[in-house]
User: Which sequence fits this backbone?
């Protein structure tokens, strides 16, 4: 990775790719671990929600909600970094994550008897990736606008020389 590249878009893509690889490796360790990451913590969370439900917490707020939100949170960086790392067709990160998540759940089903493979995990992982992708859209629009201006030979505001005092302001449309 040449992080000293003068092209800021290339540098952004390289950093995003490096962070994406690191994120995917961390996720792989978590989801392909032979058993749940912290079984006693999961049991404690279930007990907490059971007590909270007896004291009036709505039933829809529970372990499954926390698990699905955790999966979404874990995969949101994949959508964000994947779309920033891609040069073109940034939206492909979402179906790619859906396929990857399906492969994870199949591996858990076939090779990891201590893990539970579910469709809700695939949906939550894909939803998290979609949220990450949507968070990247403003940056992608700015990048697209800079590329369009560069193709037209126009300069951005950062490239303009500041006006000297007394110099007339010229507005061009």
Assistant:
């Amino acid at each position: 990775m040449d992080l000293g590249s003068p092209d800021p878009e290339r540098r952004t893509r390289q950093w995003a790719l490096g962070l994406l690889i690191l994120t995917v490796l961390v996720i792989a360790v978590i989801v392909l671990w032979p058993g749940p990451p912290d079984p006693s913590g999961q049991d404690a969370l279930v007990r907490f929600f059971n007590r909270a439900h007896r004291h009036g917490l709505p039933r829809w707020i529970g372990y499954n909600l926390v698990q699905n939100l955790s999966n979404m949170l874990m995969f949101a960086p994949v959508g964000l970094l994947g779309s920033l790392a891609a040069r073109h067709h940034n939206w492909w990160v979402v179906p790619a994550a859906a396929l990857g998540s399906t492969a994870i759940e199949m591996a858990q089903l076939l090779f990891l008897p201590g893990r539970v493979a579910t469709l809700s995990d695939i949906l939550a992982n894909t939803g998290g990736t979609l949220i990450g992708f949507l968070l990247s859209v403003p940056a992608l629009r700015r990048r697209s606008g800079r590329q369009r201006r560069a193709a037209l030979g126009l300069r951005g505001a950062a490239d303009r020389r500041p006006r000297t005092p007394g110099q007339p302001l010229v507005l061009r449309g």
